Amino acid sequence: LQACMRGCRGRRQAAAVRQQRRAVVCLQAHFRGSLVRRHHVRRLQAASRIQAAWWRYVCLKQTKAAVVLQANVRGMLARRQCHDRRAAVAVLQRGLKHYLAIQTLKTQAVHLRQARMLRERTAHLERVASVARVHLATMQLQRWFRNALSLRRLHVQEAAVIKVQACVRGTLTRRRLQRQAEATLILQRAFRAYQVRAMAARRTHAACRIQALWRAHFIRKTMSAKLRAVAARVHAANAAAEAHMTLGNRARSALEILLTHKKLTFVLRAVLNLDAVTRLSRTCCEQLVAQGAVPILLELIRSCNRSKPHMAVLEHSLNIFHHLSAHPKLFAGVLIDHDSMNLLAELLQMYRDKDDIFNNAARLLSVCCKDDRRSALLRDNTSAMTRLEGVARLLKRKAGLAARSSKTPAAKAKLAALEAGAQTMKDVLTSL
């Protein structure tokens, strides 16, 4: 009945905690979604601004490059034309100077020859001028043709760049839209799955609550008078319970006694309480490990002898270690040295005729052998292995002797205990 009542109360508290957690998770999801969407919008705006600035910079750079190229070409052509004109003028000047020199040196007698030479020179100059005009016209045509080719090439390159930009932007846009669509589908699936799980959880909780209420009603309806009296006594005992009777207070007081007192009576009472609380509560096991009670328990086990109070202390101490072994994370830092393995082997050898202590020690040793690190420590310890092998041989021999005279029930019970001990030791040695 206590288990049912505590289970009902625990399920109610767990349901309230799960409902609060679902509400907190929902609020966190909405808030985080808002933050992600706001951050995504800001990133898109920043990317658009960066792309616009970049393309504007690229266009300006290309325009400036074209202008500089045209200016260089035009300057080169102008310089070439000026050079040609200067060369022609120099040729004319040389011819004219030569002619004037001839005219000053010649006599009147050669005026006809000079006239003829003048006519020839004039014709030559006309031919030179015509050649110069043709050459200048040819240069002008070449300049126009090269300008046309440069402009056509520039237009072709500009069209190719525009096409490449359009393809890249289209690809990036399609990828972005595809990612947005996939993200939208994922969010929709997650939200729908969350809704389905929440609905299933609510239905399960409602069904469990209805079943619990119906079972409680049915049990109260069909409860006998004796069970009603027992339930009344349980309620009365719970109402009369005091604070020092709780597991936490009992664990704290027992740890305080174990850490401070040396008297055997108080120590026995402390290990008895620790045996009870560690069997019922993981929190008490964590508290025992955190306060450093494990080394004190090991020293207490080493100091015990074969008297009844000491054996009671030893039995409860082994029970405490066995309760700690039920929690792997807590037991990972316990019994991980050579002294601990030696201690367990000594207990098995010393108390092989005491079934309770021997069984507890053998069970604890079998749990330790499941860990590779402890198994390696035990295999490396030659003295401990010798003790274990000796205990196994002794139990096997005693079991063989007891099997011959197992006629009475007591003898049969002793034979069963010896066979169980021998089998336990065999399993331990096999695992090593």
Q: How would you characterize this protein structure?
A:
- By secondary structure, this protein is mainly α.
- Helix content is 90%, strand content 0%.
- α4 runs antiparallel to α5.
- The radius of gyration is 54 Å and the shape is elongated.
- The relative contact order is 0.04.
Total strands? 0
Overall geometric form: elongated
Amount of beta strand: under 5%
Task: State the helix count.
Answer: 14
Please state the structural category.
mainly alpha
> What's the quaternary structure here?
single chain
Uncertain runs: none
**Largest sheet geometry:** none
Radius of gyration from the CA trace?
54 Å
Mean pLDDT: 83
The first-to-last residue Cα distance is 45 Å
Fraction of residues in H or I helices: over 70%
Order of helices and strands: HHHHHHHHHHHHHH
Task: Summarize the model shown.
The chain is an all-alpha fold. Helix content is 90%, strand content 0%.
